[in-house]
Amino acid sequence: MRRIVLIDGENLTYGLRTLLGTEGEKLPRNSLNTYDFRGLIEEILAEQLPGEILWFGARLRQYAETPELLEKTNNAIRRQSYFVNHVQSQKITFIKVGYLRLRETDPCSQCQNKEWKFIEKGVDVGLAVRMLAEAHEDTEIIIVSADTDLLPAVRASKKLGAKI
């Protein structure tokens, strides 16, 4: 039986940063730049190792609405580039799908200052599409995510005969 692992990257890293943090504080994003993701997957799966591990993450682009925002997006692109190299060095395929949407926050009630916040969009859809493309009777798909938006794709993949 063919075995493939599909990872919702932001979902996994958020969970790990939360679980590995102390006193209710998440670890900083760069704390996972040396994390052994393949080792984690192989430990969980024990003797049933996957043939392929796919990591799904958002495409990043520059936003130049303000100089601060341009700097923030350039830093995010640099961090992602380093992180992608780290993930790929573990023989995990990094698939860029979806994007980061830029959203302005509500103004601060005291100073009326607004901040820019990034929201990941479409990564779960890309993962779901790949799940359905891989779904066959001879395939076992392991999903690493806590995103309930994937449930319709899980059900459809099971109907196609895949073991989830």
Structural class: alpha/beta
Radius of gyration, in angstroms, nearest whole number:
18 Å
Report the strand count: 5
The low-confidence parts are none
State the strand order across the main sheet: 4-3-2-1-5
Largest sheet: 5 strands, mixed
Strand content: 15-25%
Question: How many individual helices?
Answer: 5
**Topology as H/E string?**
EHHEHEEHEH
Shape: globular
Helix content: 25-40%
Distance between the termini: 12 Å
Mean pLDDT, as a whole number? 90
Structure at a glance:
The protein is an alpha/beta fold and 164 residues long. 40% of the residues lie in helices and 24% in strands.
Could you characterize the architecture of this molecule?
- The chain has 164 residues and is an alpha/beta fold.
- Helix 4 runs parallel beside helix 5.
- The radius of gyration is 18 Å and the shape is globular.
Which features does this protein show?
164 residues; alpha/beta; five-stranded mixed sheet; 5 helices; 40% helix
Blueprint of the fold:
Layout: E1 2-8, H1 9-20, H2 37-45, E2 52-59, H3 67-89, E3 93-104, E4 116-121, H4 123-134, E5 139-144, H5 151-159
Parallel strand pairs: 1-2, 1-5, 2-3
Antiparallel strand pairs: 3-4
